[in-house]
Amino acid sequence: MTLTEFVIATIVKILVVLGLFSALAGFGTYLERKILAFMQRRLGPMHVGPYGLLQVLADGIKLFTKEDIVPQNSVKPIFMIAPIIGAATAFIALAAVPLLPEFTIFGVTIHPIIADINVGVLFVLGVMASGLFAPLLAGMASANKWGLLGAARTAIQLLSYEVVTGLSILAPLMLVGSLSLIDINNYQVGGFTDWIVWKQPVAFVLFLIAGFAETNRTPFDLLEHEAEIVSGYATEYSGMRWGMFFIGEYANMITLGFLASLLFLGGFNDWGFIPGGLAIVLKVTFIFFFFLWTRAAWPHVRPDQLMWLCWKVLMPIAVINVVVTGIVLMM
Amino acid sequence: MSLEQFKDRNVMQNYTYIPVDKPPVKSMDKFKQVVKRTFKGELFVGLWVVFREMVKFNIHTVKYPLEKLPISPRYRAVHKLYRLLESGYERCIGCGLCEKICIANCIRMDTRYDENQRKEVTEYTINLGRCIFCGYCAEVCPELAIVHGPRYENASEQRAHFVLKEDMLTPLDFLKEGKQEEFPGFGAVSPNADERIKKTPLAY
Hints:
The complex is a heterodimer.
Chain A: H1 3-39, H2 55-65, H3 76-93, E1 103-105, E2 108-110, H4 120-130, H5 133-141, H6 145-176, H7 181-187, H8 196-199, H9 201-214, H10 226-229, H11 239-263, H12 276-297, H13 303-330
Antiparallel strand pairs in A: 1-2
Helix pairs in contact in A: 1-2, 1-11, 1-12, 2-11, 3-4, 3-5, 3-11, 5-6, 6-9, 6-13, 9-13, 11-12
Chain B: H1 3-7, H2 27-38, H3 42-56, E1 79-81, H4 97-101, E2 107-113, E3 119-126, H5 136-140, E4 146-148, H6 165-168, H7 172-176, H8 193-196
Antiparallel strand pairs in B: 1-4, 2-3
């Protein structure tokens, strides 16, 4: 493959991922509203299009045409840049994620990964972690006390749960011996029984819990807990700037779904009679559904409970898990 | 219920005592409580409940402007004035009881004697801005002329005087088509009235 071909292929992949995942993030809001509604015995969006399917489009038009307000006393450049950070980091994180198994189309073998770097997991987690600058800067720049409180909560929550995420995936990484997501996937090539979740169930649970906190989903969505701090870091945002936060959040959820299925649930290997491509889509869908499911079922926690859970429960368990894995590996 | 019971103000409250564990004091007890609550699985009960409701698909949504819930015949919404079914004449005899009993003071009527020396209602308004929909007017009406209709969507530009007599009175063409249905609510004759009336000897 020449350099030109490589550049063109990469650009095409980037455009496909950007377009597809923006659309999926938009569709995610529709799915979330529908599933939450069904779980609460409501119907959800019904009037725009068949079964409210065009609601995504209507929301998009609304967000694009809404007045873009920048508050008077805010730090304007940072206020305007913050949502872009949120959306951008979410999409950059997807660059190192192998989305599907290799497939051949028109005689060309396509690797559905934008950049197959050998530190894939580190890259994804690092970029997702730098996404915390979005709510942090947004809250601090918007000259609003609720925003400031949201920013403070961003700092405590996202920073602490990064620790748990990192420690929890350390144990499976020790088993695999590689940071490349493709290597991790190939480690589980033996099928259902080879899934890392059976060897590292504790790490899986910890990773999911930390994932909830990192993607700012309901049991831990303290950054914009509307019952306590109006809308947290997003209080002053309107229009597409607000929309970008949410595209970022949903893209992050999908990324986390990919990470969890690649790291623990066998990735894109064939699953019985289900081909690999479909298998990973099913797994990601289930994890996405799980995010919505918990939102319907579980209550919020207080910030102090959140920190208590992180530092006094999850982090010790993660450390113990790493130590036990190390001892088992040495024996 | 006897009167004595009714007068008794010392109402027994049927409170149920929910046993609550003593708050843990020692750190070991706190730890035990955490472990107990962790493995109790209550979170999964919550998950199961919402999942069950989703699968059951027992939707309670009413798409309001398109479909409306049936309302009780005794629901007290905007008033209606009825006509006599046979002659089409207004049932209202201008007695003024509704105006008198109205505790919100929102009913206003003017009457006069017509050429046959019968009472005629010239002006009849209800100020819905004042009306509290207590239903006394419908209750006191000896002729069942004023009743509460089922119209509860009362949006208007001016709420003060938007119920005039012409709005409330059954339109004549509507009556002629036989569309004025007898009011089934309070004060109306029950549907099985014929069966319940014992015939007088003169009827044999």
